[in-house]
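Query structure, 310 tokens:
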């Protein structure tokens, strides 16, 4: 029983600790999903440099925060043991970054109940921590990312247009506002000529495509039951984080929304310590859906996913 209580408290502490850290970053003006720092010609999602698989969910934000704070020049990460297996070693004195992984356990009282009722015990999900190091902290290895290195200057306008077209999304250009129309399943967007650069257009398209991915016949993403009046803000947060990840995949620096949105998101995160975990997980699901739709998915999708709440 004592162990069960300790496991529960640890799980709650992870939610609280991570949420407080992200809230502090946002309040200080560092929006984790805008990813403003430079890497060595790489604009990609955080990935495990040993397995080649991308991190997902809240781990994307945690590793982006760490990369921004330390000024790392690579998006590749490894555990201490993986660095050794790769023939390298973590430099003395380096501090790792904690990420989380979903796991399950069966409490003793549930084992007893199942035994008495002759049923299978129900496992309880929980988050556990583990530590990774950026490739800049490891000697003797080379970071081989899962995606092609690109700088913004190397991005052809046609590449961005081709990605959007390949998803199959219905985008209708015209007017001066961008929005997704769920009832008719299309995106309305100002014409390309209204944007200063193709990257500016793609940022807006990526945000609206994230909304498009949540349609009932796609990912069926809803937040009404849990978040009530804040469901709209949760959907906006998901779209914002997903758009930032799509921009990272395509080598486009992302930007954040108006300050009013940030204040709404802060309120939601402060009122529910799982909110940012839920938003980040749904954002990664949206990104994977869009990458698959565009024919850009591969087997490196999710390293150490967390999937605790609906």
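Result returned for the query:
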């Amino acid at each position: 029983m004592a162990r069960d209580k300790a496991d529960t408290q640890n799980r709650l502490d992870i939610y609280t600790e991570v949420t407080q850290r992200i809230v502090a970053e946002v309040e200080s003006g560092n929006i984790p999903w805008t990813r403003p720092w430079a890497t060595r010609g790489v604009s990609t999602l955080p990935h495990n440099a040993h397995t080649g698989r991308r991190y997902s969910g809240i781990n994307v934000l945690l590793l982006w925060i760490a990369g921004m704070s330390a000024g790392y020049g690579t998006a590749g990460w490894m555990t201490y043991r993986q660095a050794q297996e790769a023939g390298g070693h973590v430099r003395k004195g380096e501090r790792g970054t904690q990420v989380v992984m979903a796991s399950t356990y069966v409490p003793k009282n549930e084992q007893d109940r199942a035994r008495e009722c002759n049923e299978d015990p129900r496992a309880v999900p929980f988050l556990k921590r583990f530590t990774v190091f950026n490739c800049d902290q490891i000697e003797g290895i080379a970071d081989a990312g899962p995606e092609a290195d690109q700088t913004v200057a190397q991005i052809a306008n046609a590449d961005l247009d081709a990605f959007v077209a390949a998803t199959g999304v219905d985008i209708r250009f015209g007017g001066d506002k961008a929005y997704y129309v769920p009832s008719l399943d299309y995106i309305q967007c100002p014409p390309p000529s209204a944007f200063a650069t193709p990257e500016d257009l793609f940022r807006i398209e990526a945000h609206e495509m994230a909304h498009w991915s949540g349609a009932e016949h796609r990912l069926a993403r809803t937040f009404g039951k849990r978040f009530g009046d804040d469901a709209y803000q949760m959907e906006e947060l998901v779209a914002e984080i997903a758009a930032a990840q799509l921009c990272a995949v395509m080598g486009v620096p992302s930007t954040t929304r108006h300050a009013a949105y940030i204040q709404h998101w802060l309120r939601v995160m402060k009122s529910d310590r799982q909110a940012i975990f839920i938003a980040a997980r749904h954002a990664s699901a949206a990104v994977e859906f869009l990458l698959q739709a565009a024919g850009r998915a591969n087997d490196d999708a999710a390293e150490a996913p967390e999937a605790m709440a609906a």
